[in-house]
Amino acid sequence: MALLIYVDDILVAGTDSAQIDRLKQFLDKTFKIKDLGHLNYFLGIEAFISTDGLNICQRKYTLEILKEYGFMDAKPAKTPITAGQKLSSLEGTPLDKPEVYRRLVGKLLYLTNTRPEITYAVQQLSQYVDKPRNTHLMAAHRVLRYLKGSPGKGMFYPANSQIKLQGFSDSDWATCAETMKSVTGYCIYFGKSLISWKTKKQATVSRSSSEAEYRALASTVCEVQWLLYLLADLKVKPNSPTTLFCDNKFAIAIGENYVFHERTKHIEIDCHVVKQKVYEGVIKLMSVPSQKTTC
């Protein structure tokens, strides 16, 4: 049995309904709880359970955002961000009410819990919450117009899923024109179910695209290890090493080969967690063509 607790909201999951009932009775006797029955709404996330699996979305939350910012009747956009768009902290004019932008970005960040396709766009927007400009607000409004086209879109987790982890790691080298830092992106699947994803600017500047890819691999490996710890707590153990796909063969070679010392001595030690986990058999690195990683 597992409990997910956020302040005074509790979600209980388990394989023994009698044990769950005993737990609820104990909690009610101790704290006086209110039993809301089977899962259907939790922290703004709507859940629909069937024999086929679990579907989660944030339709109500999305519609509330659209209504608050006046986009209920807006023309939908096909993508959350314009292809090739590069935001800057210097272009445009400063906003008179920056708190409006900050509030919107905060709401969009929470929406990425069920909408992984807006993660990159929101990551770009979140870099400018300190001093937002009108160009940043326009980009945020495009995300809203994209959401207008599919407010109920979410995630589906089938009831019968293969007990296997696999991930995809990628990076966008020197994509930030102001700092020349790269962006890490990854997604991890449990069977066919997407369970973890992230887009984040790397902490340091990478001297090559291979180094940026290797740093992205290191971040992905750390997430895989955390997921394995979580699965172990739930008494679930994958039968094989986690397959990790990357479209940079040199980055894979760094992770598998201890001979590249001269070329990689400037990379921080913490990045070499990839080598350690390959050696331990936790992950298995695989090459994948770049065109097959494009969503």
How would you characterize this protein structure?
- The chain is globular.
- The two termini are 36 Å apart.
- The chain is of the alpha+beta class.
- Helix 6 packs across helix 7 (249-256).
- The mean pLDDT is 91.
- The chain has 9 helices and 11 strands.
- It has helices at 17-31, 59-68, 98-111, 119-125, 134-149, 209-233, 249-256, 261-264, 273-280; strands at 2-6, 9-13, 41-42, 45-49, 53-57, 154-158, 165-172, 183-190, 193-201, 242-246, 283-287.
- The strands form 3 sheets. The protein has a 5-stranded mixed β-sheet. A 4-stranded antiparallel β-sheet has the order 3-4-5-6.
- The chain folds into 2 domains: 59-154, no CATH class; 161-293, Ribonuclease H-like superfamily/Ribonuclease H (Nucleotidyltransferase, domain 5, 2-Layer Sandwich), CATH 3.30.420.
How far from one another are the termini?
Answer: 36 Å
Taken from the alpha-carbon principal axes, the silhouette is globular
CATH architecture of the largest domain: 2-Layer Sandwich
SSE topology string: EEHEEEHHHHEEEEHEHHHE
Largest sheet: 5 strands, mixed
